[in-house]
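Our working data are protein records whose layout never changes between entries. Getting from the letters to the tokens is the skill we practise here. To make this concrete, we reproduce a full record directly below:
***
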Amino acid sequence: MEYEFSRDPVQGGYHAKFSMEHEVFSSWLVDEVGNDANQIDSLVQSVEKLRQHDTNELTFEGREYLLTLNQMDVTLQLNASCDGMGGANGMEFEEDVSINDDNFRAACGLDDFSIMLTSWQKFLNT
């Protein structure tokens, strides 16, 4: 997983840019996690529980994204209520309209996710 973190010197705030196949992590990291140290710590501890086999799978439902972690992989996807597929916003697509799921979902290994979280945490503390 390739990514780059930066600060906006004009408006303040943070940015995360991920490779195309992991783009959904960009908005999740900035909008859902942000600089919330408690949430970052909770995610780091969750990864550790999975590594120690204290649990098999954990799910975190945010405002816009659903994060699922298991002992091998991490999957991030847009919540059903936000994807325009008959969720809370009431929009539904015609049967002949196809949606590219890659824009709404990404996956990576647990180790890559852990390294990324630690990098984000260090970035915020510099």
In short: Confidence is low (pLDDT under 50) at residues 85-100. The CA atoms of residues 6 and 12 lie 10 Å apart. The radius of gyration is 16 Å.
